[in-house]
Amino acid sequence: MSHPLRVHIETVSTLSDEEFDHILSFFVHKKMKKHSSLVTMGEQVKYEYFVIKGCLRAYMTDPETGKEFTYQFAVENWWISDREAFLRNLPATITIDCLEPCELLGITLQNRQKLGVEIWKYEHYLNVKANFGYVALQKRLQIMISGNAKQRYEQFINQYPQLLNRVPKQFVASYLGVSRETISRLYRG
Questions:
Q1: Looking at the domain 4-119, which fold is it?
Q2: Whose C-alpha in 60, 99, 111, 151 is 20 to 30 A from the C-alpha of 161?
């Protein structure tokens, strides 16, 4: 059985065994318990993470109200980090918590850049995946601006059916910018 990271990269570029072994050598393996924090707001972010197993939630907290706003979820074969903090060496502006026990691969910015220079297929993979990420973000912004609660919820379940039974409804509500009660009503409907 192929490694999940290799399978993911090979959706863009086929790798030799030697190339993949070299890529994997740049990553650190990390296991996290359910309810633990992978990234904490205000701290440095040393890694970008590829999810091998588990489910995570990235969120911002309003300093005045304490209200949480879910920014992103990540499950198997997705990437997660506070990207601005990671890329610019700034303190994190979000927190990332494990909603399930997680197994991750982390790569530092220095190793990511070095690997991109050494193996063009990896750099190409990152570019393709970043472009797909921008498209997904654009769609999310469009529906958040112009869609009603029902439209946002329907797009969420169509785009991310694998999250419905793994993410508590209050986090889905926070992600969609609606109340928990609205999600419950839509979930029943």
A1: Jelly Rolls (2.60.120)
A2: 60
